[in-house]
Amino acid sequence: MTAQHPGNQPLQSLEEWEEDVIRRYPEEASANSEFTDSSKPRDAFRNYDSDARPSVKEFYRLNHRHQTVDFVRRKREQYLGLDRRKMGFGKRLSS
């Protein structure tokens, strides 16, 4: 079994959940979160008229170019087939 990063572990309690929510989404008065930029003006968020970084433009260009209906059908066949499901012998009998 491989060692997992501690950040990938499930939460141990509801208190841990609350602490994480407060860390991610602090009250406006105490905006000390690493996920927000308190110096950014409120109307600058979700500005769809501004230019995107070149890497973002390239990412979307490639997605629009290569994610065709045929591609999606192949991936659905590859990943949604019954041969990829992992279950024990008892579970297979009851399915």
Structure characteristics:
95 residues; single chain; mainly alpha; disordered N terminus
Topology readout:
Layout: H1 14-24, H2 54-66, H3 69-79, H4 89-94
3D architecture notes:
- By secondary structure, the chain is mainly α.
- Helices cover 43% and strands 0% of the residues.
- The protein is built from four helices and no strands.
- It has helices at residues 14-24, 54-66, 69-79, 89-94.
- It is flat.
- Residues 1-5 have low confidence and may be disordered.
- Ranges where pLDDT stays below 50 over 5 or more residues in a row are 1-5
The count of DSSP E runs of length 2 or more, i.e. the number of strands, is: 0
Helix count equals 4
How much of the sequence lies in strands comes to: under 5%
Q: What is the subunit arrangement here?
A: single chain
Largest sheet at a glance? none
Mean pLDDT: 75
- Rg (CA only): 22 Å
- What does the overall shape look like? flat
Helix and strand string, N-terminal first? HHHH
Task: Summarize the amount of helix as a percent range.
Answer: 40-55%
- The assigned structural class equals mainly alpha
Cα(first) to Cα(last) distance is 28 Å
Task: Give a quick precis of the structure.
This protein is mainly α and 95 residues long.
